Amino acid sequence: MGRMAYETVLLELTGPIARITLNRPDKLNSFNTTMNQELRDALRSVEHSARVVILTGAGRGFCAGQDLGERSMGSGGHAVDLGVTVETAWNPLIRRIVEMPQPIIARVNGVAAGAGANVALAADIVVAARSAKFIQSFAAIGLVPDSGGSWVLPRLVGQARALGMTLTGEPLPAETAADWGLIWKCVDDDALDDEVDALAERLASLPPLGLAATKKLIRSTWARTLEQELNEQRNEMRRLGYSEDYREGVAAFLEKRDPTFVGR
Questions:
Q1: Quick check: helix, strand or coil at residue 159?
Q2: CB 114 within 8 A of CB 146
Q3: Cα dihedral: 43, 44, 46, 51 (round 10)
Q4: Phi, then psi, of 256 in degrees rounded to 5
Q5: pTM of the model as a whole
């Protein structure tokens, strides 16, 4: 097991699985500038070493979003250009999560609010504890759902529910989030670790090239027609069909043995 030192996040590497924990529990893991930078750096550092990434929060919450007490948000009545904050911090973070080849699992252990909710929803698979809640808290301070929120919400739950969540800021229980298709799964609090660990181990055991291609295909499909999608599928199947991992998977199936995938 390897552990790298950061001030506001914990990074643990256990074999092919990287676990990144937002670690400001006294602030419900709300983001300051340092945590945003360190999370992006931690994700970047495991891009070529991990096959799966688990993202979670320390303590009783997942993430309360932006730390509104942070000095860079403005003090003494001075206005701050939030567009710069979004462009330099939040947008690169969402792009990093979305564009990494590895599957990223959000282990939502408690409240996920504001940008914290949308960072979780940017992950590929979201597993939440039953006590967790997702809160689009931007309207209460006169802002819009950033960190990808206004894009992902209507696509996952439809316009009516997206507008209800974002305009009212009403907390959405994890169970309802799962029923709506906002997240993959809601599990009992005491089952969260077993569920996430088993999922991470399963994904880590699968051919990584195929997982990366699937992630990319499904995440980019919104921009394509069916005809274009069929062409993309053909291209990916051709490329992956020549891979060592595909040959190994077929051979292992026919020989009734466990496969060993190498990512080539």
A1: helix
A2: no
A3: 80
A4: 55, 50
A5: 0.94
Strands 104-108 and 112-113: unpaired
Cα–Cα distances in Å, from 20 out to 30, 83, 109, 191, 261?
15, 27, 13, 19, 24
CA 209 – CA 264 distance, rounded (Å): 7
What Rg value do the Cα atoms of the chain yield, rounded? 19
Instruction: Give the residue from 114, 127, 132 showing the smallest Cα distance to 174.
Output: 132
Q: From the CB of residue 206, how many other CB atoms can be counted at a distance below 10 Å?
A: 17
Domain 2-204 has CATH 3.90.226.10: yes
Is pLDDT at 47 greater than 80 in this prediction?
yes
Domain boundaries of the chain, sorted by first residue: 2-204, 208-254
* Rounded Cα–Cα distance for residues 145 and 118 (Å): 8
Q: Is the pLDDT of residue 4 over 90?
A: no
Q: How many CB atoms lie within 10 A of CB 106?
A: 28
- CATH fit for domain 208-254, picks 1.10.3470, 1.10.760, 1.25.40, 1.10.12: 1.10.12
From CA 42, how far away is CA 49, in angstroms rounded?
12
